[in-house]
Prior knowledge:
Largest sheet: 10 strands, antiparallel
Number of strands: 39
Strand content: 25-35%
Helix content: 10-25%
Shape: globular
Low-confidence stretches: none
Bound molecules: alpha-D-galactopyranose
Amino acid sequence: MAILFDEATRQFRLHTDASSYIIRLLDGKYLLHAYWGARVRAYKTDVYARFCGAPEEAFTLQEMPTDRLPQEFPAFGHGDSRMPAVHILQVNGSRVSDLTYRAHRITKGKPPLEGLPATFSDECETLEIDLADDVSGVRVTLMYSVFEAYNAIARSAVVTNAGAADVRIEKLDSACVDFDRSDFDILTLSGAWARERAPYRRALVPGAQGVGSLHGASGHQQSPFVALLSKDATETNGDAYGMALVYSGNFEACADVSQFGQTRAHIGLQPFDFSWLLAPGERFQSPEAVLVYSGEGLGRMSRDYHRLWQNCLMRSSFANKPRPILINNWEATYFGFDEEKLLSIARAAKKAGVELFVLDDGWFGKRDSDNCSLGDWVCDTRKLPGGIGGLAEKINKEGLLFGLWFEPEMVSPDSELYRAHPDWCIHVKNRERLEARHQLILDLSREDVCDYIISAVSAVLQSANIAYVKWDMNRNMSDIGGAQLPPERQRELPHRYMLGLYRVMKTITERFPSVLFEGCAGGGGRFDAGILAYMPQIWCSDNTDAICRSQIQYATTLVFPPSAMGAHVSAVPNHQTGRTTPMETRAAVAMCGTFGYELDATKLSDDELAQMKKQTDFFKEIKPLMQNGALYRLRSPFEGDDAAWCVVSPDKARAVATLVKTLKRVHMQGERLRLDGLDKSADYAVRFAPFTAQSDTPSFVMGGDELMASGLPVPAQRFDFESRMVVLERV
Ligand code: GLA
């Protein structure tokens, strides 16, 4: 039993294989958080006595004793002056709620979320706890689903208006956890376009600290994720408490340290500029947050998230399947292509072992640059006389699958769609419609707009043999307003947009189950678990430089698996950084993702094409391992000059280890790379990957324990930006 309610202690105990989460009912009324951490049999501490029994209490004049209580889901205005998890505005202007316990249910399985992406499993158990406020008639149901084998708990909250008057939700967290200490570090993932998701770790201080988004997307700038770490936490040791949101829109993830040295960690919808009108009888469900506790450092937390997303979040049939090696024409041609050019790239790539050709932006309307045609999903026959169907057929004849780029959520002011429906974009009447990349965002809070997108994209997908779709989204929201929403609902638009988007993505991905979908948002501007529920991979960043990518991808793996990271080998000098890196390093880095190419294969030398063939042959061999193996981060590029990781098969029989070096340090000898995750009692045959400069080195045997304790001997670095990649096989 993963969940039990103990009558004697009035405790709800949620157990995973390695963690426990305990909630306590006080006086039959108040729901208090008792514990989250390493698995315990029971929890005997009387939380009320611990938190409210301080000897000087009689002398404090300002605080209410309830101000110290570790709440499970704090409401605003009745005895807790910390940041609430839920804030309700009532018809008389009052914002006070007093949510007390009413009932609970423990069931097998997990109900889906209403209109939102979420984890799923028939195996897990779900606890629902009803709280209610008598005065307003508001009811809040807290949902907890326990994934025992993943050390994960999925949470969300449902607000129901059981009263007689309208109420407005002004804030609603997905999860909130009151820790009885504050000696933590906080870890977030932050960045910018082409520099997404760098890890930031710092000590908690009194007050609020955290991240959020107001971009109308989870964003390049901050990820919908936060972790609290014990001070001693490393990759392999210490406590890591992860909270990740299954959501792609405006969010907030914060930790608040109180005057008493407690920490309230919460994650959910961004409360700024949000409100939701709830009429009597209506319900509103928060997005889902997934909590993972690891007592074995960050590495274990990441691996639990990786397995959970792959097995219990991604609905795609590709979730656990190796993906085709692709070539994308974006950096090869940008908008300047015709059918012959595309076919010549496809032919050269096919010879070098590529399996899928992807046609990126520029195939529709009159799109010779980024200043027009978004919304007009009709093939430009000037460039492709046989249409998409004709091109797909020719690509298929060359022996490759065919894939296509869309940016379905957008409209160019210079487009047939905009001329026909100027009201379909997000805008505020009588205000300038600010363009970004010459485009506006379609108002996906509207049913008719969503239906248009579904039919326009479906028509193209039905018209040709399309095996893959890249679903892009290249600007953030501004001038937020919707023509169809009444004034009192305007602040609902960003969330209604996400609900519309999820309906569109669900409908299209279910309608075309054999198509592999890749999410994208100007690179990694919407790299989150919400998108992964529909699309099992996401373009990680518009920065394709191998050294930058070794950082971006390394940090992305804190929460997401390698199989979710779109990663390509591109040309040098790199288009974003001007840096020239060896082709083998570009490949070694891209192989820690979905692996593909984004270059003009017709411009490669014979040597490079031969190397490319060796790379694709090798990747085909290690694909299943990279898809389903466990990732161990070995050296952080944020802490030193190099990055290293290894991926180990579930049975520990095979592993691939990669080391990426940056600037060469002169007159240094070779080094040792200590591996992780291997079978200590086994011996492994070690060989260098066949496409690397060390491939002639004879293979050798080392013990798993030796490889982890002493380390793999690595030849000395000769040039800047070299890499080493080895395969290990149990003998
Ligand atoms: C975005 C994507 C790129 C490419 C361009 C096309 O920037 O991230 O990969 O598809 O759009 O316009």
